[in-house]
Amino acid sequence: MSGAGNDIDGETPRSATVTALTPDDRRAHLRMLEALLFASREPLSEAMLADRLPDDVNVRLCLAELQSAYAGRGVVLARRGDGWAFRTADDLAWLMSREMEEPKKLSRPALETLAIIAYHQPVTRADIEEIRGVSVSRGTLDVLMDAGWVRIRGRRRSPGRPVTYGTTPGFLDHFALTAIDDLPGMEELKGAGLFDGPVPGGLSVPVPSDDPALRADEDPYEGDAEETREEETGASGEADADGEGEPR
Amino acid sequence: MSGAGNDIDGETPRSATVTALTPDDRRAHLRMLEALLFASREPLSEAMLADRLPDDVNVRLCLAELQSAYAGRGVVLARRGDGWAFRTADDLAWLMSREMEEPKKLSRPALETLAIIAYHQPVTRADIEEIRGVSVSRGTLDVLMDAGWVRIRGRRRSPGRPVTYGTTPGFLDHFALTAIDDLPGMEELKGAGLFDGPVPGGLSVPVPSDDPALRADEDPYEGDAEETREEETGASGEADADGEGEPR
Amino acid sequence: MGEVIGLQTRDKAFVVDLDGFEGPLDLLLALARTEKVDIAKMSVLALVEQYLAFIETLRERRIEIASDYLVMAAWLAYLKARLLVPKQARDDEPDGEELAAILAERLQRLEAMRVAARHLAERPRLGRDILARGQPEAIRDHRIARYEASLVDLLRAYAEQRRLRGAARVEMAPRRVWSLTEMYECLERLVGKAAGWTPLQTLLDHAGPGDDREGRLAAGFSASLELVREGRAELRQAGPFERLDLRTRQGRDGQGPEDDGREGGADERRR
Q1: What is the ipTM, given to two decimal places?
Q2: Contact A69 B35 (CB under 8 A)
């Protein structure tokens, strides 16, 4: 994970915060923001924070200030896409083995499918199969959707209107990504020494985007949610079926 | 939280703790303690903390230091019996929970039911159903009672002892009626063009009365309120079942 | 090519090993890797030949091969042919070089995603390397419905509903309601006056004015049972659904001690 500290949007110089407000106001705003973010287990979006905080709180500036106040500490303020959350510093994992749960081990097909969805989203199942050269089982996609990392985005405007998949905010949160484009590009992957053999020359990966706005060739998925759900429940187990059909 | 970083990070010396440790060690100890307390699913006692932290950490001193570092902030380090845990500051409780009024339009069945109660009170549910010609869902009556427009007056002295409903002062208030007999009679309804089509000959409209005194065929409702409530709460948590028999 | 196939053929569990591959592209990648060269630079033709030879080995050993692999073999055989035969004029098909480039690109894309997947697996993960607040505090919205309706809506709803159901009988005349206690006292009085067995209905008809037959019957029936239970009256019926007759209890001397007790109970319940 990139350092907790400086990834806040740098546009606004931090000094600006201080000048406009009395120290008491500034302190009060930071307190409120801190309390809200601390209370929640899930990342809170700027919009949600703005909605709860008094109108005169400049959420973005306060977030930046709070983030730098916590930088380097045992608990850091991390950005996860649109959301913000306090998380333990990743170098302290060893300390907290008792709180840790060994996350479900992901099969290789599931990991590859997840990587393909993350980089190539929006993708249809056929797209994934085309890249992997092998069919993708429904179970694999179910696992990823159950975990809350993958969602159905919409439908591709092409014959058969296949559903398109993309990643969720939960994906960013789980893999400690500040944003989807925090995923390493080709150069970084090469540098990470993850290749089995010689590093291939012409390799590239797309620049991922999880912008929820539908693409030009996507239709919304809603509307047939009901019907799909019925289909699904008939087909497979309850939890699986449940998550399947609906955008989260 | 006031000044970015200097509460916890080592710059500002803070009494006795410091003497024995290098600022780096001290900072490292506070980080660990902070992370442990943050991530723990339960308050941690000093013994538990000592057990989990490296041997050279002086838990008591670190706790005191951490507590004073968080004092006055949005999150405070609180003692809970034996244990220590982060808690959002008490004075910020209002941030965590807010009440939002949501205007809702009354449904058509609710409007009809309310009108029937207003004109024909005291009425039982069976009476309302007889007039409407369709069954009245419990939810509809709940909504009207929630809104504060309808109340349970008593019980009809007839088999099954059904409860009787009437309107409340809040009803008059909401609809800006001076008194219940301000509700228009047959001629006024006709005159106001409220009938959409031909009016059947024998149709008449009662002169409404919301006199709280029980009628000859009404028994008081009190007394069984307790018993009814218990029954209800046992049944389920759903809003529907909730309101069942009791005045709010 | 030795390595992959060698490994496979040495072992009897051949099919299982083939199952270890995630489809033909995966097998191709594995074959390419044995060459220890950059896939971008390797010879597609050499790779194709390895693949075909591998499939051929499987066939000779009469091992069942999933259709995916055979489809790929057929396509690769076609590719090989295109690569070897010089391009003909007036041929609309893509030439061998183009096909080979497509294959190489697919392999590279898969390889890239393989690496990306490995990267994901190595990232710090929430719950394993990074923790969220262990004791989250609730942030709640209590939504309170504020219902709105206008008087006109209310009246219109009423008028419309009455108009439609209009002729339907709506009559809320207060009913004469008999309470059990009331009927008990009444019956007790009447049955005392009656001489011998009297139909219950007759007694009820004399209980008071009004034509509330059902209510009277319901209360009367319960009250008569109560009288009988307390030993104050007797009830008889010739058969199911026959008339019910009631009379005062005869021969009170025959009472057992429990009847005394009941009497006390009766007084209490009529209190």
Answers
A1: 0.64
A2: no
